[in-house]
Amino acid sequence: MKQFQFNDFPNVTGSRVSLRQITDNDIPDLIEISFYDAVRAENVHQAAEMQARINQDCLDGNSIHWGIVDNETNRMVGTCGYYRGLDKGEGELGCVLLPQHYGKGYMTAGMSLAIDFGLHTMGLKRIWAATSLQNGPAIKLLERLGFVKTADVSDDEIEYEWRKNNDL
């Protein structure tokens, strides 16, 4: 079922970063964070194939996947998007940041834009995220954004739900 369909890919502009569609020119810079079904790309060809599958998922209305771009340099620093649950009016929010950009606030800015878009443009009723118990930076990011832990999904995975109703 197509839950969300856009005539044009929705780009979102913020003061520090923007969320935009990933192009073929971006793929070489994103190989190390290119994943599909938890499998990481090992080369440009695999990353391009994965991106084509991601783009089809977006066209089918099952997900939305943005590149996070530093507005000052116009360079891609990571990715984020909604990957599951859209058919129920919900969205699992996920993200990956290029290692050289850790600790610089890019993901906080990008995820804030994605949360706002999910709530106000897509009308999502619930936003959640899952991460590993060992991923301390992701846990801190989610808590900083207003997510609260809601479940231990497995021995190593925990789920968080967005609950903050402040400035978004």
UniProtKB/TrEMBL annotation:
Gene Ontology molecular function: any one: protein-N-terminal-alanine acetyltransferase activity
InterPro entries, sorted: Acyl_CoA_acyltransferase (IPR016181), GNAT_dom (IPR000182), N-acetyltransferase (IPR051531)
Keywords for this protein: Transferase
A Pfam family hit: Acetyltransf_3
Family annotation (Gene3D superfamilies): 3.40.630.30
Superkingdom assignment: Bacteria
Keyword Transferase: yes
Domain N-acetyltransferase: 17-167
Record-level GO cellular component terms: cytoplasm
Protein name: GCN5 family acetyltransferase
